[in-house]
Design a protein that fits this description.
Helices cover 12% and strands 38% of the residues. It is mainly beta and 152 residues long. A hairpin with a 2-residue loop joins strand 4 and strand 5. The chain is rod-shaped.
């Protein structure tokens, strides 16, 4: 009887060990972006505008970590404007409306970057804008046309 009891205890012990999962794997963490994200909402890439008119530029940025502290807009690699959140020093989602007066006929490169309060920058969002000549503007170097007067 004792050997049967030992056999039952041994079988029970084996079942308990088999039911235990001693190798636990940690839960998979939810990935968060390492840097903020920024994108142009408007205008679209390759948009056209008449020289001398204002273009509205809408930019959206987000950061699931610390939040977005500012958005910078560059025109042809020169800082043009900076947008800051009004509600706090940093926000998870931030949309800003900026403007640019179209100058110099030709292609211009618009670049946006978003920043965290600690200075961590997003990758650049870029687009091209084509400035067309204003048909109502007289060229500066235009010479007056010569006219002939009627001889009596």
């Amino acid at each position: 009887m004792r050997s049967n009891l030992k056999l039952v205890w041994f079988a029970l012990f084996g079942l308990v060990l088999a039911g235990c999962n001693l190798s636990t794997t940690p839960p998979t963490p939810i990935p968060t972006p390492d840097i903020p994200m920024v994108q142009f909402v408007s205008p679209t890439d390759n948009a056209t505008i008449i020289e001398g008119t204002d273009m509205d530029i809408q930019i959206f940025a987000s950061d699931a970590g610390i939040g977005v502290a500012r958005i910078e807009l560059y025109v042809d690699e020169q800082l043009h404007q900076t947008g800051l959140p009004e509600v706090s020093a940093a926000v998870p989602d931030f949309t800003v409306l900026m403007n640019w007066r179209a100058q110099s006929v030709g292609r211009h490169f618009l670049t946006a970057r978003a920043f965290r309060p600690d200075g961590t920058s997003s990758d650049e969002a870029r687009l091209i804008v084509e400035v067309l000549p204003n048909a109502n503007v007289t060229p500066v170097n235009a010479a007056p046309l010569a006219t002939q007067e009627a001889q009596p």
